[in-house]
Amino acid sequence: MRTTEIKEVISRKRHYRDWCNEAILPGDRYIGWTQFDDRPSCNHLHPECMEAFEESDEKEFDNLNPRGCNCDWDDLCARCEERRAANAPEGPHP
Ligand SMILES: [Zn+2]
Ligand SMILES: [Zn+2]
Description:
Blueprint: E1 2-3, E2 7-10, E3 29-36, E4 40-45, H1 47-55, H2 78-87
Antiparallel strand pairs: 1-3, 2-3, 3-4
The structure holds zinc ion (ZN) (2 copies).
One zinc ion is lined by residues 17, 19-20, 22, 45-46, 49, 67.
């Protein structure tokens, strides 16, 4: 399989993600490349999703994962738990 160089770019438009369920917005950094199978297809991944993709042995983007993870929506995933905690609003809940 032939691919273009993998490079990190700043998005100028909205991209639908290939790995997770979150879109890439204008101004976000993403990792992009094009691969040529029968026809060219472009891939756009958040940098943290690229790490998760490289760690996993999946070769295709056939099912969505949580952003930055490759656990396939495992409720008990420690990395997703950490991410949820990091994204939670400051302070105690009312
Ligand atoms: Zn992503
Ligand atoms: Zn996870």
